[in-house]
Amino acid sequence: MGRSYVAIGDSLTVGVGARLFGGGFAERYAAMVEKKLHSPVKLSVYAKSGLTTEEILQRFKLSEVRRAIAQADIITITGCGNDLVQAVQQYEEGGDEKKLLQASMHCQANFTKMVQEIALIKRGQHQPYSVYLMNLYNPFPEIPIAERWLQQYNQHLRLLAANPHVEVVDVYRMFEGHEREYLSIDQFHPNHKGYEAMAEALFQQSAKQL
After folding, report:
1. What are the residue numbers of the active site?
2. Per-residue model confidence as pLDDT tens digits over 64-103
3. What span, in angstroms and rounded, lies between the C-alpha atoms of 96 and 10?
4. CA 105 → CA 102, 110, 193, distances in Å?
5. In DSSP terms, which residues pair with 76 in a beta bridge?
6. What pTM, to 2 d.p., does this model score?
7. Sheet with 41-47, side-by-side order of all strands
């Protein structure tokens, strides 16, 4: 019995920064699941580089995306990295910490809405499914305020795991101390090792549900 996997999000779901072959974490994770279950995984990716959580949330309105979610056994969402970058840039220009707090609250609110949308689409279905929210690693280890912001953001994101079917994958912990090794030349997106680590974290987290 094959699985259906829907990956939604930003450049991390697209796989920006990875080598041409191998893709991002979604392709790697799908391959790990296929190997474990000895059956095919149908992967549908709805992602685009540069999307903010607001724009990712808009994707949930598309009938194609809703149809895919309705059939999915596994759903992953990445987001908020672009919101963070914008907030850090604004902070560095003007030094206003409120911008960072606002961005964090904004991301949390949008992730909450995404989780609610999935629950609505899935309502009345009896097949089990799992939603995995990927938390954020720190691409700015040299900016103390970014570190503080991320810890706070990831802590709040974890609260969403109180929803049925929802789990948060601790990408932050996988990357901590390995930033040099896991980030690509642009020092922001993961490289192939980073995506491998993300897929591994997701696989470990989801193994018991498979």
Report:
1. 11, 186, 189
2. 999 999 999 999 999 999 999 898 888 889 878 888 889 9
3. 26
4. 5, 9, 30
5. 7, 132
6. 0.96
7. 41-47, 3-9, 74-77, 130-134, 166-169
